Amino acid sequence: MIKSIKVMLIPNNKQKTKMFQYVGTSRFAYNWALARQQENYKNGGKFIQDGELRKEFTQLKKGEKYKWLNSISNNVTKQAIKDACESYKRFFKGQSKFPKFKSRKKSKPSFYQDNCKIKFSNTHVKLEGFTSSKKQNKQKLNWIKLSENNKIPTNCKYINPRVTFDGINWWISVGIEYENNHEIPTNNGIGIDLGIKDLAICSDENVYKNINKTKKVKKLEKKRRRLQRQISRKYELNREGRSYKKTSNIIKSEKKLLKSNHKLTNIRHNYIHQTTTEIINRKPMFIVLEDLNVMGMMKNKHLSKAIQQQCFYEFYRQIQYKALWNNIKVIEADRFYPSSKTCSECGSIKKDLKLSDREYVCTECGCVIDRDKNASINLMKYGNSIA
Questions:
Q1: Main-chain dihedrals φ then ψ at residue 336, nearest 5 degrees
Q2: Helix, strand, coil percent content, the chain, rounded in steps of 5
Q3: What is the pLDDT of residue 387?
Q4: Boundary (domain end) residue, out of 115, 150, 177
Q5: Average pLDDT over the chain, rounded to whole?
Q6: CA distance 26 to 16
Q7: 128 with 206, same domain?
Q8: Which of 20, 80, 162, 369 is the Cys-Cys partner for 26 at CB 3.0 to 4.6 Å?
Q9: CA neighbor of 25 nearest in space, from 87, 104, 125
Q10: What is the arrangement of strands in the sheet containing 329-333, beginning at the earlier edge strand?
Q11: Strand, coil or helix: what is 344?
Q12: Both 77 and 143 in a single domain?
C-alpha cells in the first residue's frame, strides 16, 4: 500500500529563488519535449522515446545559448521530459486530451526530485543541486525546513517526490510504502445521504452539519466579497482604453484575496477530512453513497453556489481512498435509485415527493420521518442487498 504525505516547506529567500529557477527549467524542458514531439509528428515521424529526447537535451545544454541549464539538477529536466512523453502517449491511447504547453501564468509551478538523492530528517528535507560547494555553511542551503516535525519517515524508500507552489506556500509530497491492512471490518454497513442542509446524514443516526452555515465561514465569505469588489474598482480606476494597468496596490490586494480563498478551501477540506475519518473509524462492513449528478444539480441557479461549497467530489474521493486502506467496501447506488421517494418502513414509493418536502410522510403505512434520514436508511438497505 502506497500512502502519499504532503508537508509545507519554510524556505529562506535564497532557497525560494532556487526553487523558482527549478520550476522555470522544468516548464522549459516539458514545453521543449512537447514541441519536438509535435514537430516530429507533422514531419511524418514516429513517436520519439523519452531516452532519445533526454540525449538530445544533453547536447542542447552544451551550446552557449542554453548554458544556464547546467546550473540546475539534471533530474528536474529528465522527469519533465518523461512527463511530456507520457502525456503525449495518453492522448494517442484516448485516455486524456491533447497536452497543452505549460504557461508561466496558468500552469501549477512544480518540479521533481530524485527519489534516491532526496533526504529527510525530523525537521528538514535535503534537495539536490542547490549548491555544489562542500563547505558546511554553504551546504545548509540544500536543507529546507519542514513546517511539521516527524511527519515523514526518515529511513525508507520514497516514491515520486514533487515540490509544488500554490501561490502562497511551497509544499513537498512523497509516496511511502506501508504494509497492507488485513483486518476485515464486521460492523453494520452505513448508508450516507449527502445534502445541502447538512453535509452528510448517516443511517446510524450520525448527522454532520453544513460548515458553510457557521459564523466563521460566513465572515470569511463576506471578507472575500469585499476584496473582490475592491480589486474590481481599482482595475476600473487604472483602466487605459481597453487594457487594464496592474499597480502594486492591486497585486497586494490580489495576494490578500488568494490567502482568503486558500483559507476557505482549507477549512472546508479539513472539515471533510474530519468527517470522513470519523465515519471510517466506526469500521463499517460497507459504505453506500449515491451517484449524484452534480453537473446537473449545478444548473439550478438558486442552489449552484451551495452545492459547489459542499465539495461533494472531495467527500467521495476521501471516502474511497480511506475505505481502501481499511478494507471497507464502497458501494455506489445507481443515480436513478429512488432513495428519497421510497418508504424505509414498508418499501412503497411516493412518486409525487417534492424537493421542498423535508419530511417523508408515507401514505401506505403512515410513517413520518426526516427525508434525508429516510434516504440514508434506504441506501443502507440497498448495500445489504448487494453485499
A1: -100, 10
A2: 45, 20, 35
A3: 67
A4: 177
A5: 90
A6: 15
A7: no
A8: 80
A9: 104
A10: 207-209, 198-202, 190-194, 286-290, 329-333
A11: coil
A12: yes
